[in-house]
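Appendix B: complex inputs.
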Amino acid sequence: MMEKWKCAQTDWIPITITRDEVRRFAKGIMEEDLIYFDEEKAREQGFEDLPLPVTMPVTFWRYFSIPWLEKVNEPLIHGKQGFEYQQPLICNHTYQGQLILNDVYEKSGSKGTMIFLEHTLNLYFQNELHAQVFTTLILFKKEGAS
Amino acid sequence: MKGFKKGDELPPITIPEITAEHISHYAEGSGDYASIHLDKSAAQEAGFARPIAHGMWSMALGGKLVSKWLSSNVLVTSYNVSFITPVMIGDSLIVKGHLLDVDQGSAEIKVKGVNQREETVIKGTMVVKG
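Resulting structure:
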């Protein structure tokens, strides 16, 4: 069922993160460095505004409508996560984001057959790639499912 | 990165006991309110004794290993982890950074999170470049 979605893409969407969202996320990860809370401290370090903590872009998934996951009712296991940066992401910049299901494959193990879903979220600012977010989700294949 | 060399350990990020508050703060910050993280019965239905922390919270704590180095000229250029086993309320978590390489403003760091039984819960690598 998931195989047909291989190479599927979402629509491009604009994503803008506010200072408060950065501060809330930074608090959630117990970050204490003031570059995530105080724009003056961020500017002292050369940032235009508050930078996003390294792992924050994974939260951008919530802004997408993801057709290949709409009918998945089973729990998804988060297998791997990666981030690659060309530039730091900054609050109040509007990024263009698109989520791609790059690969779908199965592996058999002691707990049954697992379906691996490899995704890339590309984030552009003014037509330049600034960051990529790589997410591997795992589903257990239902007995009898094709 | 000044003062560090290949083979050094970074000061670890230590959470002596994961609490419901840790998890709810991450849920508020990330918008991930999945019940397995916040509701004991949902966690038990999924086979866990207690609510489990978000894997991304454990990974994010690894970012704290290097946050004091960061500026517009010094970036984390890559950070990749595998999630091995979840941690849950009541567990401890220590996220460690081991410098695999340090070279003229760049560093490659092995990141590993362990619980109170010294079981690896996340593992991966981070690259910081200046």
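Helices of chain B lie at 20-30, 35-38, 40-45, 55-63.
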